[in-house]
Design goal:
It contains 7 helices and 8 strands. It is of the alpha+beta class and 291 residues long. The N terminus is likely disordered.
């Protein structure tokens, strides 16, 4: 502690001596310039100005040289403080950055349906640090409100993906699958009948859905699935039959339409299986009679 005090005292004495010496030398030179009769006034002014600037620069360089160790410690302290401050307030800074990103790009507004990261919902409020959502069960294809309110930090706007789902509030392209055991029923023979039933079920919103689909394609300049229903038949890894149905329907009717179409499929399935069993029974009976 005493060594630091002695060093600091020496630095102060060196500073005073250095500044005093430079100022004294400058004052002597200025007097010599003023007394000199061989130099015109313009040259004297230029030399005087150069002498003052040079002396100031020399004082600055000498001060930095003398106090460089102290300045180094001070700079390290400032850097450590700034680093600690940034680490402590990183999340807060990211939230403010996300808020600035929202203000500059306007990816969504209050009332829009959005996906922020893995969270879906309707935007209720937006502030400097967070976005409040009224959760919508889009992930499971229900498109209904769950009754939960989500507080999403605006940092996710920068670190995650933001999707505006506002166009799905009215109509949505909904796909679902029906899985059945692999029996002696050819699903491709049921495909046309099922497609007729699906078209009949979607008849009441077909015209509105077609207009909405065309409007979205023009506004977004992309091809959107629909509005006609699509049926795709495949098999799973376990060898089961999978019927995948895609419909472009009003968002509030998604769950209802899925139930109606599933009911129609089950009716066709069990009717076809009953007819096949009846046909087999008739054939077996005819064979027994013949024998």
């Amino acid at each position: 502690m005493e060594f630091d005090q002695v060093l600091q005292a020496n630095q102060l004495l060196a500073t005073i001596a250095m500044v005093g010496s430079v100022l004294l030398i400058r004052m002597l030179w200025l007097k010599l310039l003023r007394r000199s009769r061989n130099i015109d006034s313009e040259t004297r002014r230029n030399l005087t100005n150069s002498l003052r600037n040079s002396s100031h620069l020399l004082i600055a360089v000498l001060l930095i040289t003398i106090w460089l160790p102290e300045l180094r410690h001070f700079a390290l302290s400032i850097a450590a403080f700034v680093a600690a401050f940034v680490l402590a307030t990183r999340e807060f800074i990211q939230c403010l950055t996300g808020s600035l990103y929202h203000l500059s790009t306007k990816p969504y507004a209050v009332g829009d349906w959005v996906q922020i990261g893995n969270n879906y919902g309707e935007v209720l409020a937006i502030d400097m640090l967070s976005t409040r959502l009224y959760e919508v069960d889009i992930a499971h294809g229900n498109y209904g409100y769950t009754g939960k309110t989500l507080m999403i930090p605006n940092s996710l706007l920068v670190t995650g993906t933001v999707k505006n789902l506002n166009f799905t509030r009215r109509f949505a392209y909904h796909t679902f699958s029906i899985v059945r055991e692999a029996e002696d029923i050819n699903l491709f023979e049921l495909k046309e009948q099922l497609l007729v039933k699906v078209n009949e079920s979607c008849k009441h919103f077909r015209k509105v859905g077609r207009r909405y689909n065309e409007m979205l394609e023009k506004r977004l300049d992309i091809a959107i699935p629909g509005p006609d229903p699509v049926i795709h038949i495949s098999s799973s890894e376990l060898g089961k039959n999978v019927v995948t149905i895609g419909i472009f329907c009003p968002t509030p009717e998604v769950e209802e339409m899925e139930q109606i179409i599933t009911e129609e499929f089950m009716r066709l399935w069990y009717t076809t299986r009953a007819l096949q069993k009846a046909g087999k029974a008739v054939v077996e009976e005819a064979v027994e009679v013949a024998i």
